[in-house]
Amino acid sequence: MILKKQIILAFFSLSLASPLTYGQIFNFNKPDPYKKVFVESNNFGISYLQELENALTKIDRDSLKFEVLNDLAYYWHTRNLGTALEFTKKGLELTSKKNNSLWHGRFQITEGSILLRQEKLDLAEAVLKVAKTKVKESDLAFLNTQLGYVYERRGQLGKAADYALESLSLGEKLNDKKAIGLAYSDLSNLLWKQGKFEEGLDYGLKSLSYFEEGNTIDLDYDFTLYVVGNNYLSLQQYDKAMEYYDHSIEIGERYGFYNNLSDVYISLVDLNVFLNQFSEAEAAGKNAIKYAYLLDNAFMLMRSYLAVGELQNQNENYPAAIENIQKSIEVATPNFGDGFFLSKAYRSLGQAYAENEQFEDAFHSINKYDSLNSIVFTAEADQRISQLQTEFNVTQKENTIQLQKTELQQQQTNQNLISLIAGLLFLMLLVLFISFSNNRKKNKLLKIKNKEKEFLLKEIHHRVKNNLEVVSSLLALQTAQIKDPNIISAMKESQNRVYSMSIIHQRLYQNEYLSSIEMKDYFINLGSHILDSFGEEERIKIHYEMPELHLDVDTAVPLGLIVNELLTNSLKYAFPNNKAGEITIDLDIISDHEIQLLVMDNGIGQTEGEPAKGTGFGKNLINLLTRQLDGTMKVIYTPGTQYFFNFKVDGSS
Q1: What pLDDT does 127 receive?
Q2: What's the sign of the alpha-carbon dihedral 323, 327, 333, 336?
Q3: For residues 463-485, b (16+ Cβ closer than 10 Å) or e, as one string?
Q4: Which of UniProt's keywords are assigned here (predicted)?
Q5: CA 273 to CA 403: how far, in whole Å?
Q6: What pLDDT score was predicted for residue 226?
Q7: CA distance 52 to 73
Q8: Which of 1, 266, 352, 620 is at a distance of 20 to 30 A from 7, taking alpha carbons?
């Protein structure tokens, strides 16, 4: 009970000593709203895990929810294996329900990681091998690492090395620095267990360089610091070992990596014993046990009790050593798979029994040690790791030679390519120069031809305008011979219609544009002419409420005739008895293919359905021209008269 209270107090003191300060983890306004820890941020702690859990209810995209839930499960496995397994089971249930095989496989990798740390090695192996059939190639390096851990715990170090090298090969193929760093870390740990400390140190330092190159300061980087420290410790470089252990503890306490903390404090027991710092060694042993309990990890707890027992052997406190080492073996039995540490436990127990003069117990313990040791450190395993190491070194040298050959070939290829590109550029420049010269000549000819065509078009419009004026003059001469006022009125209207067309051709040859007419100026000229022809300049005012607007000839001519008819009707019928009045013309763009025309007067108005005054020719002409322009007309009869038109046109500006 006292120990549990100490652990709980330690847990809260750790949480308070490591306050979390981090930015927003989720921004759901972005396409990729999740800011992953140890990828985009190194801010991690209990609050981070809580925020991940809270976010699950707000995420509606399956792939994002699976990713967050899997991270939650994996990161909890550094703090408490039971909690981590609960989140993993949720992920497995959800992905199974959604029939998402890929993410189901990824959750199985996380499940395998947790199960092997719970010493359920057979189950972990089975789950990981099933997951291997579901996930992507980019997931396999991490999966192989977990399978390697399974075989390492069983003492099958050669098979574990095979998986580490497979992960290394995948990492190099995919240029995945994290996978390469993790593979080197695993090889470093395996070589340390084989007693090959120089090689283990070399691989461990390589691993750290890959993690640091990718700025990946995470659980695996922290574990590698511990592994490098172990190799330095075994090489009796105690200051270097302490340096790496301290760095590992700093990261472990910052992020709550309880598994790594327990590992490092176990090694610190040994280091402090070598330095004859027994009180520090005892404190390290207590910390190792504390973090093993927090993690709920039998593997760590077994090793922690073993480390304390070995310390007590050094202090010649053999009864206490026997008690703690027996606790270690009790934690490990019956499902403990790691023969390496179990053999160490029986060796230390045999030593304690012998020193305590319990020779029969010592004999049984040493026999057990010999049995386990012969399983773990087989000649086959040692030979396999040596063979793999040799193969790897040869492959690395061959790769270096091949890389140099490739670089030389690439340089030669680059030189040839540069020469070829230079030749092609010269040819292109020559072709461009010839083409430019030809284009200049063609452009000069085109300008001359365009000027000729422009002159001809202007001349045509000028002649059409002159011909229309001749027609207008003939109508005027004919009108002078007529006495009937109705015929005179009809002739005058015909003159105005001809004039409305002649103005367009006059504008075309006088203005800059040969294909379009500016309508406001055109209507002003037309309106002035009609008022003048009726002698109504003083009595009637015309307002032109419209912007500058250019229309093509095919549209402008019918519009001019329509406005001519409406102005003529207003002057003839809207203002009797010399009544003064106003007429408004408004032409506007509605869209790229639609314009609106409004012609309105404030005269006496008409009654809807009232028979047309005069011959009705003007009304029929307006209807015909409206249909020609694919338009619609609406008339409002009071007050005054208002004509609304909507016309479809090919384009306006």
Answers
A1: 94
A2: negative
A3: ebbeebeebbeebeeebeeeeee
A4: ATP-binding, Kinase, Membrane, Nucleotide-binding, Phosphoprotein, Signal, TPR repeat, Transferase, Transmembrane, Transmembrane helix
A5: 48
A6: 93
A7: 10
A8: 352
Which residues are bridge partners to 597 per DSSP? 587, 645
217, 222, 255, 310, 367 from 228: Cα distances, Å: 15, 10, 20, 22, 32
Q: Is the dihedral of CA 624, 625, 627, 632 positive or negative?
A: negative
Query: From the CB of residue 492, how many other CB atoms can be counted at a distance below 10 Å?
Result: 17
Q: For residue 160, report the phi and psi dihedrals to the nearest 5 degrees.
A: -60, -40
Residue type at 611 in one-letter notation: P
Distance from the first to the final alpha carbon of the chain:
90
d(CA 538, CA 517): 28
Which residues in the chain show pLDDT less than 50? 1-23, 378-381
Q: Looking at residue 103, what is its pLDDT?
A: 95
Q: pLDDT tens for residues 20-77?
A: 333 457 767 777 777 777 776 666 666 778 888 888 888 888 888 898 899 888 888 8
Burial class of 123 by CB neighbour count within 10 A (0 to 12, 13 to 18, 19+): middle
Whose CA is closest to 234, among 194, 276, 184? Answer: 194
Using CA atoms, how far apart are residues 274 and 653, in angstroms rounded to an integer? 93
Positive/negative CA dihedral, 252, 258, 264, 268: positive
Amino acid at residue number 183: A
Distance CA 589, CA 547 (A): 9
Smallest CA-to-CA distance from 244 within 230, 229, 234, 258 is with 229
Judge contact between 102 and 134, C-beta under 8 A: yes
Beta bridge mates, 636:
642
Give the DSSP letter string of 65-119.
HHHHHHHHHHHHTTT-HHHHHHHHHHHHHHHHHTT-HHHHHHHHHHHHHHHHHTT
Q: Cα 436 to the chain's mean position, in Å? A: 45
Neighbours of 406 (CB within 10 A): 12
Cβ contacts of 599 within 8 Å, gap of 6 or more = 562, 563, 566, 567, 570, 583, 584, 585, 586, 642, 643
Q: Kindly report the number of other CB atoms within 10 A of residue 441's CB atom.
A: 9
Q: How far apart are CA 402 and CA 65, in angstroms?
A: 45
**Dist CA 365 CA 215 (whole Å):** 46
Half-sphere exposure of 433 (CA within 13 A, CB side): 6
522-562 tens-digit pLDDT: 888 888 888 888 888 889 999 998 888 888 878 888 888 88
Query: Dihedral through CA 499, CA 503, CA 505, CA 506, nearest 10?
Result: 130
Cβ distance 484 to 524 under 8 Å?
no
With vertex at residue 264, the alpha carbon angle to CA 260 and CA 265, rounded to the nearest 5 degrees, is 115
Please tell me the predicted confidence (pLDDT) of residue 45. 65
HSE toward the beta carbon, residue 390, CA cutoff 13 A:
6
* Cα distance between residue 572 and residue 549, in whole Å: 29
Q: Is 85 within 8 Å of 114 (Cβ atoms)? A: yes
The reported pTM is 0.55
Q: Cα(291)–Cα(265) distance, rounded to whole angstroms?
A: 9
Instruction: Catalogue the E-assigned strands of 460-501.
Output: none
Which distant-in-sequence residues (6+ apart) come within 8 Å of 631 by Cβ?
A: 645, 646, 647, 648
